[in-house]
Specification:
The complex is a heterodimer of chains A (387) and B (253). With 387 residues, chain A is an all-alpha fold. Chain A has helices spanning 11-28, 47-106, 126-134, 145-154, 156-165, 167-184, 200-226, 228-249, 259-265, 275-291, 305-312, 314-334, 339-367, 378-382. In chain A, helix 1 packs parallel to helix 12 (314-334), helix 6 crosses helix 7 and helix 12 (314-334) runs antiparallel to helix 13. The radius of gyration of chain A is 21 Å and the shape is globular. In chain A, 46% of the residues are buried. By secondary structure, chain B is an alpha/beta fold. Chain B has one domain: Rossmann fold, CATH 3.40.50. Chain B contains eleven helices and five strands. Chain B has a five-stranded parallel sheet with strand order 2-1-3-4-5, with helices on both faces. In chain B, helix 9 (175-188) links the parallel strand 4 (156-160) and strand 5. The chains are: A mainly alpha (387), B alpha/beta (253). The interface between A and B is large, with 58 and 67 residues.
Chain lengths: 387, 253
Amino acid sequence: MPPVVPASRDLRLDLFRGLALWLIFLDHIPSNIVSWVTIRNYGFSDATEIFVFISGFTAAFVYGRAMSEHGVIIAGARVLKRAWQVYVAHIFLFVIYMAEISYVSASFDNPLFNEEMGVFNFLKQPDVTLIQALLLKFKPANMDVLPLYIVLLAVFPPMLWLLKRSLNGALALSVLIYLLAWYFHWNFPSYPDGHWVFNPFAWQALFVFGAWCGLGGAARMARVLNSPFTVAAAVAYILFAIAIVATWHFPRLAQHVPRWLAEWIYPIDKTNLDVLRFAHFLALAAITVRLVSRDRLWLRSPVAYPAILCGQHSLEIFCLGVFLSFVGHFMMVEISRGVGMQIIVSLLGIVIMVGVAWLFAWYKRIEGPHRGPPAAAPGSTLAGGEA
Amino acid sequence: MRIVAALLVWTLAASTTVAAAMAESCAVAASFANTEIALPRVYAAMQKKRLTISVAGTSSSTLPGPEGARAAYPARLEAVLTNHLPNVTVRVISHAKSRQTSEDMVKTFPLMLMDDRPDLVIWQTGTVDAIRGVDPDVFRATLNLGADTLIAGGANVLFVNMQFSPRTVSMIAIWPFLESMKFVALERDLPVFDRFSIMRLWDEVGTFDLYSPTKRMETAAKVHDCIAHLLADLIENSAQLAVAAKPAEAPAK
């Protein structure tokens, strides 16, 4: 059954966000052969960039319209409600993580891994750990994206207001914050030490850039995007990234990277959204927009439907993906770690994600007419209110 | 991608009977223990028939119990190298101590350099920093500082990255630390002994059971022995590369 979509909704957003959610799921299962298909093995950027960009784009699209129709207060309140939902989802995931780690710690004993046992130390002080988790300062491995998203949404209302007043002015402010964060090393503190893995001061630039595109920036860039020079530069850069990343997988190739180049490009910093990563995402996006125009018929065919469905329920499916990666890893260590198992776990996980997304769509359909603010625009329902 | 390559290697290794000198199980991961980066100081030391190696590390460079020190990879490395290089006096001095962050270790480097006068420093680090939540940026800066200190002290440097522990791999955020170490090594042309990928491969192809809970030392000792063999191969190969690269410089120590 093809999704019912108003003409204004760009299905490519849902499609690529859905695909990004699958890739994040695959990447979160340690030692999974299927994850070699994910884009982080072929370039500097990964699914996180896609997710953050599209989230910014849809947030601007959905709440921007709400702001035009119902004013700043209503739109702002809806953004904050969304931030709260993401916060609750994050804490829910944290509880699942605690259950997993408590279980493992009770059955873990191996003289080889005395050092790694140190990770269970925080279980000895639940008072501190739980409070730090509620404050978003203690974040277990692989649980860094949602806290970033919470912060981005929490400060989005004034940014959205500014974007609507002055599209380019808001983007300039966002870039300025990005640059200042690099210069002054701004970041949020973490517990017990260090900083956030995804620095909100840096990653906001991609989110706001997505919002900028969603509010008309994309149309302004159409001429630049369609120029053969842009396409050539993007292709060249993507090939360059593939060549560099190949030297990470095959250390023998590393000697072919000139020293000056290595000194210039390394380290490629994910925490602060390195310019090389940002540029790599832009290059991929430029090529994608050119290859997949929004009126492609297959976007409405059953082939694209599963990914689109997941992309339309991104928060739920993101959380489910993180949960399934825990379960998948658990199954792999408890039952079998063979290649066959890795493939089965990966495919099964994606099937479950699609099935649950379908279930959410079904709930929305049966509950839709009776619930929610009557003023919600059709586009916002399809975005799932989900920016 | 790595896994695919490793599986290929594995198939090849499995089809040819590997020499008995090294447990065949170890050889599975041999492709990860080759860096193609020369170690000229080590080569010069071998020429002078006296090779001193210092190991800076944490508890994953040790094993517990009364037999632990002899079974852990630094002691095994000394035995293997002595066996391979009968004319060279090989000393491997372990400074491994549990719960040290990289920063803690760097503070001990000047003294270690003075006491041991090492030709090679094997620097194993990362897990403690990851568990403590040290900033990857700080970790990277510390690796740079430490490597500079060691190089200025006249030693070649070899990094050893984190262990692969199947039960905790999804719980410790070691990826940024693996990456940081990789980048520091790439920038400075330092070899990395990729213990993480090696142990992951052993786990995947079933060379060792790294998962089952056990109090016994048997598997742990075998793993350390294998690490020592692969490390020895890497060190010897990298030393030989120094011949081709340039005539060995051997400033008086």
